[in-house]
Queue: 4 jobs
Job 1
Amino acid sequence: MVVSKSDLIKFFNSIQSEYEVYVPHKTEREVDDLVFKKFDPEKDFVLDKYRTVDPVRALFYMPSETVLPPSAKSKKRIIAGVKNCDLMGLAVLDDALLKDNFVEPNYKIWRENSYIISCDCTGALPTCHCILLDNNPYPVEKEGEVLYDINLSPVDDKYIITIGSKKGEELAEKLKEVCTLSSVTDNDKEIREANRAEVLKKVRDINADFTPDRNYDVITENKEAATWKELCNECVQCGACTNICPTCYCLILNDESTNEEFKKVRSWDSCQLVGYAEVAGGGTPREHKWETFRNRYQCKHNFMKFNFDKLGCTGCGRCISACPAEIDLREVIQSLQEV
Ligand code: SF4
Ligand code: SF4
Ligand code: SF4
């Protein structure tokens, strides 16, 4: 099926009483930056291009939320324009926050009530490096796993719709009530493949200096290497790289009480902050700055791989853009491989 952008706007407008709709918008501050905002028929939005400044995680795992009792609202949400690097991030969070014995109640509610409409990237930022992690700048089915409910592939001023789940089928039925959908032609498919090849080349060119198919075992194998001490020199331990990452979920749980109620509040924490994991008496598992710095790389590439059989880095490049010390994760890993 194919839908025009004007029909999509009509669709988003028509369902607002039932769903909250979030779409990427340009910011007033920086023309290149995109941020998720609630759909407003008066404001233009950008479904394609590249990732937003904040990861989609921020709509599912808020900086601070009451988890007992869970504070997540139950209204249904459509989040459109999600990029593949953020879909991969949600897949990691699903493993961490919904499985086994630990279920984060708010995340579960947000996830169940949200419909994800992803979109192929049509551009890339200088920090984008999904291809180095064997990911694509557009979602594809991997080992039978589809991470979107609906995916949109831009073709001129229209989008090819690919349905990925039961929720996607549900949305498509609603789309049909409001929009005029046409069939996908061979020409549409050819344009989609050409667009995908072009953006893939763009991301490859951006990362021409870096080696794909990396051996991430070196991060732990070289864990005592003097290199770490050099690499962490410029780090000011601000935690920006973890706060902006689509797969970070470290938390701190506080008890709060008033005369009326008792509640538990979960807030983001960061392994990069001084005092993280410190225990009473001042004991800490990572005494030196270089150990703290190294932990993020180990967590993303070794620990998460071990725990979830997935890398915890999706190649979105946000930590590189956010770092005030201009530390580039790609360079850090490459230099370790050269030790
Ligand atoms: S990292 Fe890849 S998927 Fe993510 S925005 Fe950049 S090009 Fe798109
Ligand atoms: S480690 Fe950096 S590049 Fe990798 S997913 Fe997190 S923010 Fe993105
Ligand atoms: S953003 Fe940069 S300076 Fe801040 S903690 Fe991360 S690596 Fe260190």
Job 2
Amino acid sequence: MTTASSADHPTRRDFLFVATGAAAAVGGAAALWPFISQMNPDASTIAAGAPIEVDLSPVAEGQDIKVFWRGKPIYISHRTKKQIDEARAVNVASLPDPQTDEARVKSGHEQWLVVIGICTHLGCIPIAHEGSYDGFFCPCHGSQYDSSGRIRQGPAPANLPVPPYQFVSDTKIQIG
Ligand code: FES
């Protein structure tokens, strides 16, 4: 009788422990990554390459956020007027990978830059808001991208790619 009782109780306790632990882990992750949990669908949907929606309303002017789409880091920059003006004042013909700022953002939403955060040199992750052009700096071999994500200096041959995305409302985009 004692044996039967002790065999039942640990089983039940183990189940409760696991269930509580899982709930705590989910709660902790949500607290640590409020943006990510709010913006992304569940993991299996993301793994299948589904589009993700990103709410831009919490991103203040001058801030950048990073989300993941199809396993790739995506930088979303809420550009200041100064950053936009600097990007548009550049002589496009002088760029290693000539492209206008207008061609890299959505008309009417010029303040938002959305780029894939993978250096076009050897694939490192550049750092946002760093470097000489108030854009992105890749610490691996010193490539510098401007506030439009265009390569300006260093060994990278091409601009940071713009992923497919669209505005689904004034403050929300869908990537993919
Ligand atoms: S990987 Fe970025 S500069 Fe080489």
Job 3
Amino acid sequence: MPPVNRHVPDPAIRRRFQRRLLRWYARHQRDLPWRKTSDPYKILVSEVMLQQTQVDRVIPKYHEFLRKYPTVEELAGASVSDVAATWRPLGYNIRPVRLHAIAQQAVHRHDGKIPASLEELQAFKGIGRYTAGAVMSFAFRQDAPILDTNVKRVLQRVFLGPRNGNGSKSPKRLWELSAALIPKGKAYDFNQAVMDFGALLCTARKPNCEVCPMQPLCRSYPWDKDNTSCRKPRRSSM
Ligand code: SF4
């Protein structure tokens, strides 16, 4: 028998979360330009731009950057100062330098391709576990988990509850949850859905609990900004 992971909810609760989330996503998903491509290079560019930067600031720069450097080879062949200038004013200016280095490594070591493996992606300086998971699930359609700020917050609130803090002390637990919740073969939609859910409904400051489909499952419902509400899970009714 496989070992039981006490951090992971049982299959019935996972299915209920998945169904509710995907139903919500079908009606509320954001229309974002990097969701219209499966090119791993373009998805990588979007993910690096989205680190610490809001979506509406990223969208015009994403288009501009890809007009100028439409392929890995063209980015690798540009000067790093030109790439950094194109990046402005997005900020966190180490990012274009790293992206440029990633493109050069991809050309020299992978024949100009972004590799389709978590290990190879994480071997690039500047590609962490989140970005590797995003490229694997959004470009290569593999069931790889992700854990950005939005995903962390949603999983934390629904499955761990408010008294467990912001998740920073339990990243291992949240990575396990993120992986265990993916419906087989559906990481693309599922991961996008959790991100949208966190960005639009279960937001950091004002989660819209009144209209939230997760109410019966959520250990933080109703959300209290002072974190004083922490309901026991109602496992029997799930
Ligand atoms: S009930 Fe509130 S805290 Fe729980 S997932 Fe929904 S919006 Fe977030």
Job 4
Amino acid sequence: MADRDRILVVGASLAGLRGAEALRRHGHAGPITLVGDEPYPPYDRPPLSKRVLTGEARADRIALPSRPGLDLTWRLGTAAVGLDLAAREVALATGERLPFDRLLIATGTRARPWPNAAEAALAGVHSVRNRDDSERLRGALAAAPRRVLIIGAGFIGCEAASACRSIGLPVTLADPNPTPLASVLGTRIGAAVAAMLREAGVDYRPSTRVEALESDGEGRVRGARLVGGGTVAAPVVIVALGALRNTEWLAGSGLAADAGGVACDGQCRVLDRDGRAVEGIAAAGDVARFPHPLFEDGPVALEHWGHAVAQAEHAARTLLGQAGAPYAEIPAFWSSQFDVNIKSVGLTNGADSVAVTQGDFGARRFVAVYGRNGRTVAAVSFDQTRWLPAYAGRIEARAAFPPILGATDQGRVAPADPGFPASPARG
Ligand SMILES: Cc1cc2nc3c(=O)[nH]c(=O)nc-3n(C[C@H](O)[C@H](O)[C@H](O)COP(=O)(O)OP(=O)(O)OC[C@H]3O[C@@H](n4cnc5c(N)ncnc54)[C@H](O)[C@@H]3O)c2cc1C
């Protein structure tokens, strides 16, 4: 590519910033413009459901660190609303059209809203995805509501429950699945999280679906009605129903982009509707759906911090014509809740077996390893990270399951059904 080519990055958050940095690091000297619909420079999201809610971190003090002297042009507070592939232009909400030679798509995800728009609009109903969300919610929590209702026991819901309890607020957490994090960890390991919630004093309601949010008649939420009867009175409701991929702005562009994400090949090159890679356009981070060599069920889209960084680096090298082997970073995430550090490597998708391989499940200090068709596919640690690199190596090597036996800190290894719900329920 020509050294002076104009590179446009749409989405000015983790993947967008790290992608722009990688473009410079790998030698691109031409103009780089970042377009972001949020008014803020890139910031870190993990604290938004943790220390920002407790007041230990301020939402305006979580900027992502960045190398100085990158010479980037910023268009913040400006949404991209369309892409003209033939003209190689991105349309902005302002009516402007930004021409580009190369494009990095990094528009990530947004919080899935409560399905009833009128109920979602009630004062006191919150989600947790961006700085403004968390700042607003922090304000509501600081006012010491008499109860917080959290709908959804995924990572964000459980972390929010942990934050609320650590500042002494009564919390009800309702989720239609039999355990928290059932779709990621399965119910066998999810039971450890259920125990953590209960010990911390969360009024945890598994297998419970919220039917409707109720208004106080003056535009404020006063609680929720549950399917099958019963109500929860709560002037603050946190909707934690997972995420939606920000692909609408690509509608009609000819790119293969839909609710499942922006389809890419193994080099992060975006595919068109016919499945052909489009030269000079790449995607990275939460919005990208891509084939991972370790996962045979077809393309995956990952919502992990480390993946956004690694894939942005790969996409940048692809845009510069420097890509080597296909992107194959092992997925990894962490979560901290109730003073326990949960970490994971690999993907539990489709796992048919799980075994606690190290530590003490009852004490919530253990490693659980997941197998699928006799191969090791994932490992999750609760306050016991030191084994994870070893298991990451086994996952990469597609080692037989269970992969490590007779190791330190290992009792009897008894593989069991992980208990993934047939189709995990939401909300
Ligand atoms: C509350 C919270 C806690 C988390 N905690 C953890 C954790 O503990 N561990 C972990 O591994 N991961 C965690 N994650 C996930 C991690 O933060 C994400 O994987 C990461 O932010 C993805 O980066 P991204 O740049 O791909 O997408 P995003 O961070 O979603 O950024 C996309 C950006 O693009 C903008 N945008 C969208 N559409 C447009 C448009 N049309 N025009 C212009 N801009 C647009 C968005 O507003 C946003 O600023 C957490 C996420 C959240 C929300």
